[in-house]
Amino acid sequence: MYFGLSEDQTFFQENIIKYLNDACPLDNLRKIADGDKDLAAEINHGLVNLGINAIMIPEEYGGLGLDLLFATSVSQGLGYGLSPTPFVGSYVMAPIAILEAGNEEQKNNYLPKIADNSLNFGVCVSSFTGARDNAKIKIANNTVSGNALFAIDIENPSHVLLADEKGLLGIVEIANNNVTINKLTTIDKTRTVAELIFENSSIDILEKSSQSKDIIKGVLDAGRIVLAADTIGASQNMIDKAVAYAQERKQFGRAIGTFQAVKHMCADMAAELEPCYSLVWHAAHLYADNTTEGKIMASHAKSHTSEVGKMISKTAIEVHGGMGFTDLLGLHFWFKRIGFNRQLFGSPEQLREEAALLQFN
């Protein structure tokens, strides 16, 4: 029995990586980090043409009708190429939330428009995952007020998927709805993060989410699995760069890759990352079954890959020596992506605690 990505999934992932290699080299990443929104939009348009926005949407709503394992394979490619575009919130979490919690009218209203890219979704679930005292929202009478931090995929959103502290999900249209977007500065300049301020803003409640917290937890699990795949892709890229550098950089008349210490560093990175692939794929495979085991695996996938990614990002820079810290090589972009993924939707410590509680309940 062989467990891994299918030919179609691998082909899609390779196309993503090839496109990003051509459209988003290091020089373009620097421009985007410095605020070139037009270039980021152009890259996003190219990825949408490849179909990343329609993966999780059923065919009856104009999508591709694929599953989370397929989205996971795509996310690996996006992480490897360090895509500066929306994915996990806009094209994974938002469609899943609408499918699981929305009524037929809501599904027919939103899903086809995500599939044809006429709607752009941001996602903000920080009120549920752990709101700060000075950042709370209140949903009542189909309106929402307050402020919510760390909304993602928020570059040019037409709508935002919002969750309150009880797990109630709703969709807020941005235009002419008393919504203020304050961009936040994070270490990862390839992603847009913002604070959202609402003043009696109209919200379209996804009714089924009021009946149980299982829906918001499932949406979060999907996001965590896809983020874990993004971390794997970014980690693999750092390993590849470290190995390539070790083969060409010479010291004392020989390539540094011939020194045993450097060999061990590269081997340790590869050995730590390899089991993460099957861990994340397994979590994505179990997701559709909605079992306790699947929920536990989602937490472990995100927490473990976060720890491994941290080790790899540090070691890969050490292989490059002093050059690893410079902007010339650009390793810091992947380093920061891995660090940002580590904290988004729950730190490793928080996720291990959630997995323990699931296991003993």
Question: Can you describe what's shown?
Answer:
The protein has three domains: 7-115, Acyl-CoA dehydrogenase/oxidase, N-terminal domain (Butyryl-Coa Dehydrogenase, subunit A, domain 1, Orthogonal Bundle), CATH 1.10.540.10; 121-210, Beta Barrel (Butyryl-CoA Dehydrogenase, subunit A, domain 2); 214-360, Butyryl-CoA Dehydrogenase, subunit A, domain 3 (Up-down Bundle). The protein contains twelve helices and ten strands. It has helices spanning 7-23, 26-33, 37-50, 68-80, 88-101, 104-115, 126-130, 214-248, 260-287, 292-319, 331-343, 348-360; strands at 121-124, 137-140, 143-152, 159-163, 169-173, 179-184, 193-202, 204-205, 250-251, 254-255. The strands form three sheets. Strands 1-4-5-8 form a four-stranded mixed β-sheet. A four-stranded antiparallel β-sheet has the order 2-3-7-6, with no helix packed on it. Strands 9-10 form a two-stranded antiparallel sheet. Helix 4 (68-80) packs antiparallel against helix 9 (260-287), helix 5 runs antiparallel to helix 8 (214-248) and helix 8 (214-248) runs antiparallel to helix 9. It is globular and about 75 Å long. The chain starts with 6 loop residues before the first helix and ends with a helix.
